[in-house]
Structures are given as structure tokens and as C-alpha cells.
Backbone:
């Protein structure tokens, strides 16, 4: 009976090792993702602001070109 019990636990033990390996891999990739996220936070914030800034600039350029020139923008 002991041999049967040991044979039944072998696949479980192998899977447990794979689970631990996968947990370590996930931990490594999570740290890499978090580091990348920290390094790019300013860029991502700029991307979020860009559409509003571009729209404001276009609006000012179309409707208030003299105001832009006074702020230092050369239109032509």
C-alpha cells in the first residue's frame, strides 16, 4: 500500500515544484513591470495631457493668432 501512496504523491510533488517556479517567474515579471511603470510615469502623464494641450493650441491658433504671437509662438 505504501508504494501506491508514494506513486500517487509523485505527480503532485512535481506540480508543486512547477507552481513554485511559476510564482517566482510572476514575481520577477511583476517587479520588472512596476519598475518600467515608474520609469515611464512622466511620459504616460504627458500622453494623457497631450490631446487637451493640442486642442487648446489649435483653438488658439485658429481663433487667436495674435495672442499666440505675443506668447512667443511664430506662426509663419
Residues:
Amino acid at each position: 500500500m505504501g508504494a501506491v501512496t508514494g506513486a500517487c504523491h509523485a505527480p503532485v510533488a512535481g506540480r508543486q515544484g512547477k507552481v513554485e517556479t511559476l510564482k517566482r517567474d510572476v514575481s520577477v515579471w511583476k517587479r520588472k513591470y512596476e519598475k518600467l511603470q515608474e520609469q515611464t510615469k512622466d511620459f504616460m502623464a504627458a500622453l494623457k495631457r497631450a490631446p487637451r494641450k493640442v486642442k487648446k493650441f489649435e483653438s488658439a491658433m485658429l481663433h487667436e493668432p495674435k495672442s499666440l504671437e505675443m506668447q512667443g509662438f511664430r506662426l509663419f
